[in-house]
Structure formats: structure tokens, C-alpha cells
Specification:
The chain has about 300 residues and is an all-alpha fold. Helix content is about 75%, strand content about 0%.
Length: about 300
């Protein structure tokens, strides 16, 4: 009894020290947001995770089947194709939109006539709703009478059927995604560039550094942190991009532009297999979590100099 009483006393004392008035007020103020997040995010995720272990459809709940959905998925060739395309899609988009965004951000730091107008115009691909933007692109490349083919024919070339060839369809999906994504990268990198201390460039000039050396040893280290965050965000947004491959080519031709999100959609709504669709979604989530963990850990080691 004495030992139990001592333990309870120690626990209460520790709780009082931990739950200070400021902390209690903070938790009280956060409570509505936490409840909202649990209801809006937590419960649907838990329910979706449960569905991935069932054989349910859109019309019935289904029964528990354990890991069978995941086993079927890992032996399904379309899943591996969708995974490869998703990774290729993400890497190509990150390289393209980061290079374009950084180049334009460096250019927009210069003082030239109409700079404000150019900043606004370059944000338009990001501002325009994806449905409007992608459908407009589809009209411009859809067939031999589309705008791009009329230009090609005008200069003596043969029409290119962009959405009938797998290679051309993949290329167009990537180009349109880069076109839609680079304004966010541009805006974020431009803000990061403006926070760099100008005296660092002055010191580099005094030391005789070239423009390339200043960029390599001053600019890039200064924006490396935000660059990693932006690339991780762009990875998530690209892997989870349903609009571009679906609105442009419905994942075709011959599933060439089918990524993991489109595959999950097909399983759920075209094949009426909610369990497999949920399994694809949570495998995608697991892959993204692994990527995040590895990249952030490598960044932490680099920052520590180890």
C-alpha cells in the first residue's frame, strides 16, 4: 500500500510539473483543431486502411481477407508499371520545374522594365484551374487538326499524334505537369533568394569569385534547405497527381501514363474493388513516407557535417 501510494504521489507531482497552466491553456486552445483533424483526416484514413484488408465493393462492405489484397497487388504487372511511371513522372517533374523555377527566379531578381508584369504572367499556369488548363492543352494536341499540328504542318512537317503514341503521351504529361508546377517553385525560390545577405556576394566579388562560383558557393548553400522541402512537396504532389494523366489521356494510351493514383481510381470505380484501390493508396503512402524519411535523414546528416 505504501509503495502504491508513493507511486501515485510521484505520478501526480510529475503531472503537475508537466501540465503547467500555459501548457494546459495551449492544449485547450488546440483541442478543437485536434478534434477536427481526427474527424476529417484521422477517421477516413483508419477506415480506408481497414478497407485495404477487405474484399468490399462500392455496393457492399465485404469481408476481412487479411493481406490478400497486398499480395495480389505486388504480383500485379499494372501496379509495377504504375509505380515505375510514378517515380519517373516525379523525378522528371522535379528536375524540370526546379531548373525552370530557379532560372526564372534568378532572372526576376534583376531590375528590368516590366518585371512586375512578368511575375504576374508567370504565375498564371499555377492560378488557372487544372481542369481548364489541361483540357485546353488537350485541344491543342488532340489530333491532326489541333493547333500544334497545324503549326507543324505549316512549317512542312507531318502531323504528330501526341496522345496516340505512348512515348509522346508520356512526354506531354511531363511537359504539362512542369508547366503547371514551375510557378510555385519560382515563387518559393524567389522568396528564398531575396533573404540571402547581399554582403556575401560582395565578399565573393572582393575575393575574385566568378558568377558561377558565387552561385555555387553562396546561392545554392543558402537555398539548399528550402530546396529540399520544395522537392519533397513536389514529389508528393506529382505522385498524387490525378488531374494531369487522367484529363489529358485517361492514363493511356495502353496505360502508358497510368500512375498509382489513376490505378487506385481504376480499381475502385472501374473494377468496383474498393479493397484493392485502398491497398494501392496505402502502398503509395508507405513509399512516400520512406522517401521522406531517407531524404530528411540525409539532409540532417549533411547539416551536421557527418
Amino acid at each position: 500500500m505504501t509503495a502504491s501510494l508513493v507511486k501515485r504521489t510521484v505520478w501526480r507531482s510529475s503531472a503537475r510539473q508537466f501540465l503547467t497552466p500555459d501548457l494546459r491553456m495551449t492544449l485547450l486552445l488546440l483541442l478543437p483543431s485536434l478534434i477536427l483533424m481526427i474527424v476529417v483526416i484521422g477517421y477516413p484514413m483508419i477506415q480506408g486502411f481497414w478497407y485495404s484488408f477487405t474484399n468490399g465493393s462500392l455496393l457492399k462492405a465485404g469481408k476481412f481477407v487479411g493481406l490478400r489484397n497486398y499480395g495480389k497487388l505486388l504480383s500485379d504487372p499494372p501496379f509495377w508499371h504504375a509505380l515505375r511511371f510514378s517515380l519517373y513522372f516525379a523525378i522528371a517533374n522535379i528536375i524540370g520545374c526546379y531548373s525552370l523555377g530557379l532560372g526564372l527566379a534568378l532572372l526576376l531578381q534583376k531590375d528590368f522594365p516590366g518585371r512586375g508584369l512578368f511575375r504576374v504572367l508567370l504565375l498564371l499556369p499555377w492560378i488557372v484551374p487544372s481542369l481548364v488548363a489541361i483540357v485546353s492543352w488537350r485541344w491543342m494536341i488532340n489530333d491532326d487538326k489541333a493547333l500544334f499540328n497545324q503549326i507543324i504542318v505549316f512549317f512542312g512537317g507531318d502531323p504528330v499524334y501526341f496522345l496516340s503514341s505512348s512515348n509522346w503521351a508520356i512526354a506531354m504529361v511531363i511537359i504539362i505537369k512542369i508547366w503547371r508546377s514551375f510557378p510555385f517553385m519560382l515563387l518559393s525560390l524567389l522568396a528564398a533568394l531575396q533573404t540571402i545577405d547581399r554582403t556575401l556576394y560582395e565578399a565573393a566579388d572582393i575575393d575574385g569569385a566568378t558568377k558561377w562560383q558565387s552561385f555555387r558557393h553562396v546561392t545554392m548553400p543558402a537555398i539548399s534547405g528550402i530546396s529540399v522541402v520544395l522537392c519533397l512537396l513536389m514529389t508528393v504532389w506529382t505522385v498524387n497527381d490525378f488531374d494531369t494523366p487522367w484529363l489529358l489521356a485517361q492514363g493511356g494510351p495502353a496505360n502508358a501514363t497510368e500512375n498509382l493514383v489513376v490505378l487506385a481510381y481504376r480499381y475502385t470505380f472501374a473494377r468496383n474493388d474498393v479493397g484493392m484501390g485502398a491497398a494501392v493508396s496505402f502502398v503509395t503512402l508507405a513509399i512516400l513516407m520512406v522517401i521522406f524519411t531517407v531524404v530528411l535523414r540525409l539532409q540532417g546528416r549533411s547539416a551536421d557535417g557527418t
